[in-house]
């Protein structure tokens, strides 16, 4: 994963997840983005929930911290967390293959 592309502004979930595991979000600049949900991960130590998403026609999977109270996806900004989530993604991909 390329850490720099994950530095997206806070986005708000606009619609519930549909049957195709897609949902739309609105960035602070007002643009609407359709994400595909790959999987979610709940960290046992912190009870933080992370979502791993991708956009059609792009090769990148992006992790976000899910803020349930504000129904927002927050960017991962700390290197330690990002590295931990990179390992989670790697494990997920290995399980799927």
What does this structure look like?
- The protein is α+β, with helices and mostly antiparallel strands and 97 residues long.
- 19% of the residues lie in helices and 37% in strands.
- It is built from 1 helix and 6 strands.
- A 6-stranded antiparallel β-barrel has the order 1-2-3-4-5-6.
- β1 and β2 form a beta hairpin.
- The longest helix is centred in the last third of the chain and has 18 residues.
- The chain is globular.
- The two termini are 18 Å apart.
- The N terminus is likely disordered.
Task: Summarize the helices and strands and which ones pair or pack.
Layout: E1 11-13, E2 22-26, E3 32-42, E4 49-54, E5 61-67, E6 72-75, H1 79-96
Antiparallel strand pairs: 1-2, 1-6, 2-3, 3-4, 4-5, 5-6
Q: Which shape, going by the Cα principal axes? A: globular
The helix-strand sequence is EEEEEEH
Order of strands across the main sheet: 1-2-3-4-5-6
Low confidence ranges: 1-12
Structural class: alpha+beta
Spatial gap, N to C terminus? 18 Å
What can be said about this structure in brief?
With 97 residues, the protein is an alpha+beta fold.
């Amino acid at each position: 994963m390329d850490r720099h592309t994950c530095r997206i502004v806070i986005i708000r979930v606009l619609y519930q997840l549909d049957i195709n595991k897609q949902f739309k979000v609105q960035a602070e600049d007002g643009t609407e983005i359709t994400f595909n949900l790959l999987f979610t991960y709940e960290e046992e130590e912190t009870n933080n929930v992370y979502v791993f998403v991708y956009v059609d026609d792009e090769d990148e999977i992006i992790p976000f911290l899910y803020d349930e109270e504000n129904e927002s996806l927050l960017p991962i900004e700390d290197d330690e967390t990002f590295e931990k989530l990179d390992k989670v993604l790697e494990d997920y991909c290995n399980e799927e293959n």
